[in-house]
Design goal:
Largest sheet: 3 strands, antiparallel
Structural class: alpha+beta
Strand content: 15-25%
């Protein structure tokens, strides 16, 4: 999904086409835009606020390239230590590396504020 965000190329579709014997004509993937993918995990085990609306992520998702979450009101969430402790992902795009990191941080902050929990740190 991150490669598709940056290049517009669906690698899984390419793999299936190659497997089926097609020549896909790609020698190098085009890099059209800067893209970032951040996992949503919490800094410490806790419980998400009880009054969280069912559609809380939708306004955030509409501002992203793509993303998803699996967090609901009152849910107990574990501190992120492994991939089993990931509750979602946000993908952002922008014209530059610095801008895409800034946008990712803004979305992370919005998710933290909405959930009422501290997320793991974004590292570049």
């Amino acid at each position: 999904d991150l490669v598709r965000a940056a290049t517009g190329v669906n690698l899984f579709e390419c793999l299936v086409r190659i497997y089926l014997g097609e020549r896909i004509g790609l020698t190098r993937l085009p890099c059209n835009i800067a893209a970032s993918q951040s996992l949503i995990g919490v800094a410490e085990s806790c419980t998400v606020r009880e009054d969280l609306p069912d559609n809380w992520f939708e306004p955030i998702r509409l501002k992203l390239h793509s993303g998803n979450v699996n967090i609901r009101a009152g849910q107990a969430v574990r501190k992120m230590q492994t991939s089993y402790d990931v509750y979602g992902v946000v993908r952002t795009t922008a014209d530059s590396y610095d801008e895409v990191l800034k946008r990712a941080e803004e979305f992370y902050t919005e998710v933290e504020r909405t959930l009422g929990v501290k997320l793991t740190e974004i590292r570049n």
